[in-house]
Amino acid sequence: xxxPAGLGFELSRTDEALTAHGGLVLMAxxxxxxxxxxxxxxxxxxxxSNRGYRPSVFVESLVLMFQGGGRRLEDxxxxxxxxxxxxxxxxxxxxxxxxxGDWLRRMGGTEAERLGLEGCGRLRDALNGxxxxxxxxxxxxxxxxxxxIEAMKRDAAWTYQGVQGYxxxxxxxxxxxxxxxxxxxxxxxxxAAGQVAFYSECKARMTAGKRIARYRADSASYQAxxxxxxxxxxxxxxxxxxxxRAVKGLIGALGEAEWKTPEADCGYxxxxxxxxxxxxxxxxxxxxxxxxRHAKDLFDTAGxxxxxxxxxxxxxxxxxxxxxxxxxxNQRGSAENFNKELKCGLGMEQMPCGQFGANAVFFRLxxxxxxxxxxxxxxxCPEAWRTHTIATLRWKFIQVAGRIVRHAGRTxxxxxxxxxxxxxFEGMGRRCLAISAVT
Length: 439
What we know:
This protein has 439 residues and is an alpha+beta fold. It has 15 helices and 14 strands. The strands form three sheets. Strands 7-6-2-8-9-12-11-10 form an eight-stranded mixed beta sheet, with helices on both faces. Strands 1-13-14 form a three-stranded antiparallel beta sheet, covered by helices on one side.
């Protein structure tokens, strides 16, 4: 027993079965009810010997680490130190950081042999399917966006923003926040590359009976091939328009009488015209917003008096006005919040390995952990908690002290919470037990 000077209390250690992450047991129960372990062993390559860890050991260990707040492979040691809790979950063996790093590199493989990355993709899709089958709605909005991850790694390339790292492409469903598809890309990959293929991959991953009915994106998606594909699929879309010569010409041709102020003192005006690109099959609406340029740009020689923002869309005029199209398109800012949840909430702003493939597997399993958080909030949490960020949910629910007691053949997890919070935990436990895999 130690009493540091000035603290006013003594420090001691105990061998009692205690945990600092009591809520993690319910997250693990939810994941198991969806089939995380069985699906991991089904879709990922098996170990090379009978003594090796099964894929589910690696996958569940990483997912639990992410959900508990770990951000680096070394944080697996914290899970290993939670022996009583891991025994309650049924995960007695936790790989160390070196073993996990070796597995990630093996799963990443070479360009032609990334069986692990493909297996993680099938795992993600299978779990998403379980979550989506419980969704009552049929039509969804896809928000597509690329996000930058800074990484001073051996094979990381320089991004267009002048930093070294990666540029993964992500497709989120706005209505529930689920990440439908992720594509880990090199830092020097253009966000505009492969837009049609990415949309098609997202479309193919929609559960039977569900469809992508709406699409939003920034100017990386302002491409004739993508627009034609969306039109052919009957998708309503809105994307930021590149202000190329044709678009600037249309803006310049608008008369002052065509600019309308949506409401008094809003600080901007809106106008609308019709536009078509050289290779688009149909014309579309072009909604332009302008704001007065109050501060002169040091390098502005054209003397522009306004800032302009243009949005291309096929929303029917009878369904949305120009102002409503802008407001709807601005909702794609939620994709930035989803990105933030994935990167900051689950530690995906840092990559652990020097190899691209290994980091791609790590990132995809981060997406799996993120989607399980999304599904858990919808299926098990009190309604008031469903808008919580991952950090808030972790603070209120996962990082709860508990004591594990075994008595007369019973195992009891005693949580250090008040009566009201305990009722929340009881309710979440019952809802987790009611979940079974949907075939």
